Amino acid sequence: MGTTTLNPPRLQRLRERFAPLFANIAAGASERDATRTLAREQIKDLAALGFGALRVPVSHGGAGATLPELFALLTDLAASDPNIAQALRGHFAFVEDRLVAPVGPGRDAWLERFVAGELVGNSWTEIGTVALGEVNTKVVPDGNGGFTVTGQKYYSTGSIFADWIDTYAERTDTGQRVIAVVKAHQDGVELADDWDGFGQRTTGTGTATFTGAVVEAGHVIDFDSRFKYQTAFYQGVLLAVLAGSAAAAERDFAAELAARSRTFSHGAAASANEDPQLLQVIGEVSAVAFAAAATVDFAARSLQGAYEAALALRAGDIDLAAEEAANDAAELATAQAQVVLTPLVVNAISHAFDALAASATSVSRNLDRHWRNARTAGNHNPWVFKARVIGAHSVHGRALPRIWAIGASGGSTGSK
Asked: Which residue numbers delimit the Acyl-CoA dehydrogenase/oxidase N-terminal domain (predicted)?
């Protein structure tokens, strides 16, 4: 669309700003994983340093980062702790939605909140055997111009750290599907850290229960007005998690091999850290980390194209068909990236253990967390389905679905 998507000096400045905090985050990541300790303080520190306002324009007090710059920083963060990068997934999606929303006081108020360090969590997935696309979480008029929200959600990633919760629901008065942006800290909201996955253990992904939670009228948003590249954006964050996990594995397995002098009688060198076969393994993992970061960057550029198209359509500079094409391109790119990166990263981290011996499986070293994190991130939004719809695009020219649902039987779409 003509806008520079990567500003190397700005990205370098941002990396320098966050590098000390990222290093601190990395130092405690293994222990947090082992003890299932939520990174509350670390996420507060990120918000205080302006990480949540990276995409907010400079004119409104933010960093003005493009999407390729944001995803480069998310990959860096994921290399420090992929749980934190994923915990902020809902926040950055809501920021993106507000960036393409109509200009006005309502939008400006949200940008101010982001700059002030306020964070937004995610609460979309219904619990239980709901019909495909059914929404049991309801938004009810309170009779005084406002609303209340009642229902229960799972996979409420990041909400336990947040000030606000982006909640997918249905209005009882109109049947309209909406986003209710609920204040997290009120009596009608209960957040449980009951996610028990073997990886991504500390993302704050658990149950959110709303019991007559109050929501302002201005914070009930028509779902159909959401930014069109939202599913591709959500997938992009998971791509950054995978890329960061690969980089973290390269870092930690290389450090383990560097410190290892003992070798085997049938090894290829006098010490393990000079054994060419073992160095090759680390080199292969490094190459995967490089490829993953490059793939994330390409996907982020496609998202940037969709963002710019949304602004251009709003300004009347392009037509709807051109904007739709940009969104379709972003969906395709992130889906292709997911199909490639999920097995590539998971297998590379498994292969990294070949550079070490049995001691690499020590629980105290906790190296297996890298594989567990990548495997868990890769199980979100099953890539086998994405591969099929990519094939249908290649063979029949069919556009990939941008909004899809999960449930027990047939129904309408509209839930992620």
From this structure: 24-96
Inform me whether the pLDDT recorded for 6 exceeds 80: no
Q: What is the mean pLDDT of residues 356-365?
A: 94
What does CATH list as the number for 8-119?
1.10.540.10
Residues 6+ apart with CB under 8 A from 357: 260, 264, 272
Say which DSSP state 274 is in.
G
Q: What percent of the chain has pLDDT over 90?
A: 91
DSSP per residue, 342-374: HHHHHHHHHHHGGGS-GGGG-TTTTTHHHHHHH
Each domain of the chain, given as residue ranges in start order, spans 8-119, 123-225, 230-396
Say whether pTM exceeds 0.85: yes
Q: How far is CA 375 from the centre of its chain?
A: 15
Picking from 219, 145, 137, 128, the residue whose alpha carbon sits closest to that of residue 172 is 137
DSSP letter at 121 equals E
pLDDT at 412: 41
Distances (CA, A) of 37 to 105, 262, 267: 39, 34, 40
Model confidence at 414, pLDDT cuts 50, 70, 90, reads very low
Query: At 210, is the secondary structure helix, strand, or coil?
Result: strand
Cβ density class 170-189: b for 16+ within 10 Å, e for less = bbeeeeebbbbbbbbeeebb
Q: Do residues 124 and 66 lie in contact, with contact meaning Cβ atoms separated by under 8 Å?
A: no
Question: How far is residue 160 from each of residues 121, 156, 386, measured CA to CA in Å?
Answer: 7, 8, 30
pLDDT per residue over 299-320, tens digit each? 999 999 999 999 999 999 999 9
Domain 123-225 and domain 230-396, same fold? Reply is no
Q: Find the helix or strand (DSSP H, E) in which 183 lies.
A: strand 177-183
- Residue 414: DSSP 8-state: -
Assign a CATH topology to domain 123-225.
Butyryl-CoA Dehydrogenase, subunit A; domain 2 (2.40.110)
Cα gap 309→14, rounded to integer Å = 26
- Specify the pLDDT at position 128: 73
> What is the Cα–Cα distance from 69 to 66, expressed in whole angstroms?
5
Pick the CATH number of 230-396 from 1.20.140.10, 3.40.50.300, 3.40.980.20, 1.10.287.110: 1.20.140.10
∠ CA 56-62-64, nearest 5°, is 65
